[in-house]
C-alpha cells in the first residue's frame, strides 16, 4: 500500500477530520500522477498533448493513476504523461472531474468544487512563495 493509499483510507475513516484531510490533500498535491493521453495521430490534430477524458453518468473525468502499474491494469496499451498533483490542480478547469486509481480499492473521484479548492490552495502557496522570494 502506498502512502497516498494510506492517507485515503485514513480520510475515509473520518471525512470531517481536518488533519486527515490536510494529510491526504498535501500528499496528493506533492505527488506525481500518470495521465493517459491520446494516440500520436490524435495529438497532432489537437496540436499538443491531450489527455484521455472519459464520460460516466453525464460527467467528464480526467483519469489519474498513482503508478504506471495501475494505469496499465486499467488500459495495457495506454500512452501516458507524468504530471505533478499541484500542476493538475492549476490546469484543470470546471466542469472536469478527476478519477484517481480507477479499478483499485483506492479509487477516488474529485468533483469540480474540490478541484477548485485545491487550485486555490496551490495559488495561495505560490503567492506566499513569490512574496517570500521578493523579500529575500
General description of the model:
50% of the residues lie in helices and 21% in strands. The chain is an alpha+beta fold and 136 residues long. The protein has a single domain (32-135), classed as Trna Endonuclease, Chain: A, domain 1 (3-Layer(aba) Sandwich). The chain has a four-stranded mixed beta sheet. Strands 1-4 form a two-stranded antiparallel sheet. A hairpin with a 2-residue loop joins strand 2 (53-56) and strand 3 (59-64). It is globular and about 45 Å long.
Looking at this protein, list some descriptive labels.
globular, Trna Endonuclease, Chain: A, domain 1, 4-stranded mixed sheet, 136 residues, two-stranded antiparallel sheet, 6 helices, 6 strands, alpha+beta, single chain
Q: What's the arrangement of secondary structure elements?
A:
Blueprint: H1 3-13, H2 18-29, E1 32-37, H3 40-46, E2 53-56, E3 59-64, H4 68-74, E4 79-84, H5 85-91, E5 97-100, E6 108-110, H6 112-135
Parallel strand pairs: 3-5
Antiparallel strand pairs: 1-4, 2-3, 5-6
Helix pairs in contact: 1-2, 5-6
Order of helices and strands: HHEHEEHEHEEH
Instruction: Name the strands of the widest sheet in spatial order.
Output: 2-3-5-6
The share of residues in extended strands comes to 15-25%
Low-confidence stretches: none
Global outline: globular
CATH topology, by name, is Trna Endonuclease, Chain: A, domain 1
